[in-house]
Amino acid sequence: MIVDDPTTLAEVIAVCDRYEAALMANDVETLDALFWHSPHALRYGVGENLYGFDEISSFRTVRAGGSPKRSVLRRVITTHGTDFATANLEFRREGATRIGRQSQTWIRTAEGWKIAAAHVSLMADMS
Question: Which residues are paired to 69 by β-bridges?
C-alpha cells in the first residue's frame, strides 16, 4: 500500500480545506455533502453522539449559529492507498484556552471523498 500518494494526498487536502471553510461559514449544505450518506456514518461531538447520516444532518440543521469559530493549530493528513485517508487536527476556539481535537476518516465513494467517521473533543485541563 502506498502511503501519501501525492495525487491522493492533494485530493484529500483539498476536501479537508473545503470542510473547514464550510464549518466556519456554517454551510450546512456543503457539510452534509461531505459526510457519507449512510447509516454507517458516525460523528462523536463534544456533547453528542450521532449515528448515521440522518442524525448528523439533523444535528447540523438545528444547531443554532453553527460551530464556534476556531483556529487550526496543527493538521496531519495521511492517505492509505488511493481510497482511504485520515485527517486529524488540533484547534483552539476563539476566546478559549483549551485545545480541541478533530479526527476524520475519509473514504472515496462513487460520489467522491466522504467522511465516514468523525470525532471532536476538547482536552481536559489535566489528565
Answer: none
User: Domain containing 83 — which CATH number?
Assistant: 3.10.450.50
Question: Which residues, in sequence order, are CB contacts of 103 under 8 Å at separation 6+?
Answer: 86, 87, 88, 117, 118, 119
Cα(106)–Cα(115) distance, integer angstroms:
5
Looking at the structure of the chain, the number of domains it has is 1
Check the CA dihedral 113-87-104-69 and report its sign: negative
The three grid cell numbers given for residue 82, joined into one nine-digit string: 488511493
Distance of CA 97 to the CA centre of its chain: 21
Amino acid at 21: A
In this predicted model, what pLDDT tens digit does every residue of 81-107 receive, in sequence order? Answer: 999 999 999 999 999 989 999 999 999
Is the predicted pLDDT of residue 109 greater than 90, yes or no?
Answer: yes
